[in-house]
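Hi all, long-time lurker, first post. I run a small reading group and we've been trying to get comfortable going from sequence to structure in the token notation. Rather than ask abstract questions, I figured I'd post a concrete chain and ask someone more experienced to write out its structure so we can walk through it together at our next meeting. Sequence below, copied exactly:
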Amino acid sequence: MSLPSLFISHGSPMFAVEPGRLGPSLTALGQALTRPRAVVIVSPHWMRPSLEVSAGITGETIHDFGGFPRALYALDYPAPAATDVAETVVAALTRHGLKARRNDTHGRDHGAWVPMLHLYPDADIPLIQVSQPSAPSPLALLELGQALAPLRESGVLLIGSGSLTHNLRDYFHDTGTEPYAAEFANWVWARLQAGDLDALLNYRSQAPNALRAHPTDEHFLPLFFAIGAAGCDWSHTRRIDGGVLTGELSMDSFVFADPTFSLAHAA
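-- Answer (accepted) --
Happy to help. Here is the structure in token form:
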């Protein structure tokens, strides 16, 4: 049985030390999954005009944020590298007609290591990042996932890390509980259940409060990587209820899995 693909909402860096509702559910998911030989993750905090694959022998934990509590800057996620898997990723992208190159110096940004702190807290599974295309295109992320989907059959776990809603102005200005976050998250879930890819691809014109939920869409686009990585049939999606942090960050996450997969924490 192949591994699922995942979309994980990493919210803000504070998720590292404030696991909330989602953190324990991710830990339970990591325990329920067949242990992968490697994790390949796409994060909006490493965007490049052309595709790059982290292939260094070691991966530095990057603290790419400012103004947060000191405890965050002391955290480390020393997951091993896997240069052979990185080469496999580059080859898979090339076969799909996507030009990609190795990057032997890039570390792991918080979009990668913060959710992994909860999913695999022992940091003992190789972690490879693929850069997110800097052009804001859902189709580009969908194709990227489709190109790597076959790796799931060989024990590679594919993850799109983003945030189901992501309005930093509301977050930093403490606007209080905002109903738009739950409304947008529920719309996405309904479209996933219906298998309505067309509506999702056109979410900015069809979803309620889309522009407020995502003033810019780089944190939503990894969802399309996870959908593409799921293959042809993603109608058996599981929703992991992550709640809404600080009133506007929906932490809902999704498991795109075989119909036989079950997890108590997934709806």
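A couple of things your group might point at:
The chain is about 35% helix and 20% strand.
The chain has one domain: 5-256.
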